Amino acid sequence: MKKYSPFLFLLILFSLFISCTTTNTPYTSEEEYAVYQKHREDIKTLDDLTAFLTKINYQEGPNDYDHPFFYKGREWSVNMTAYRVYLRNFGNCGGSATLFCDLLAGDYEEMGYIYRRDSRGGHGLNYFKDYAGKYHILDVSAFSKEYGYGNHIVKDTLQECADEYIRRMNYNYNRGVLDWYVRSLYAIKCLNGEPYPPVSTKPIMEGYFPGYFPLSLEPLVTELYVREDKKENKMLFASYDIPYKSYPKGLGYNEYIEVFE
After folding, report:
1. How does pLDDT run across 75-94, given as a tens digit for each residue?
2. Does pTM surpass 0.85?
3. How far lies 92's CA from each of 64, 82, 88, 100, 125, in Å?
4. How crowded is the C-beta side of 145, counted as CA atoms within 13 Å?
5. Pairing relationship of beta strands 153-155 and 182-189 according to DSSP bridges
6. Would you call 4 exposed, middle or buried from its count of C-beta atoms within 10 A (0-12, 13-18, 19+)?
7. CB-CB contact of 248 with 78 (8 Å)
């Protein structure tokens, strides 16, 4: 019987440990994916989603923030798919916003993402228009951090919601409660539960260059606020789109979107 050195044995154990802890987990079964699809069918309203997130004790994880990658000389970041966020039961703000849009896809008259740039970076929220004609801006991150939908705002127009959101955020900045202020705010319409889109975030410091979205998003993006209308606070569009295959591995795009849809 051939003998192996203790070093080789430890190396094998370490490799197995890494393979089990990486985000590149194996595909789930179609039966497990069907359970998620059933949740999508059963969740029809914001109240349904709130009850569901409470039931599964949904949280935002400290190791699940934006996933950076380079494409055509610019640094981009992207989030996990909704199904991956669901499987892990935690995500960052963009992942939470994606889960929101996917679970409620088709259940409201209009739905999408709100992207906020500020003096420290950026943040993802959601918006939707209900069938009474009211617009909502809300922050799933606030809910998952157990202080409720602190930024849930309801108004007659999306612009009114945005104005109130900015007022609240900048008011708290001026009071010293927050250490950032809003530089710009954009609505990104989501048609069928598409994931939160990739965004170029570097550099993000005040007074530096603007951020970028991929070109295909331009028809879906509405400018809600640009601080002092300065160019460095605006969001521009790259002259190209980014294929899923360029995203970091293990975020769910190849595993689930291509396999099960």
Report:
1. 999 999 999 999 888 888 99
2. no
3. 6, 11, 11, 12, 11
4. 13
5. unpaired
6. exposed
7. yes
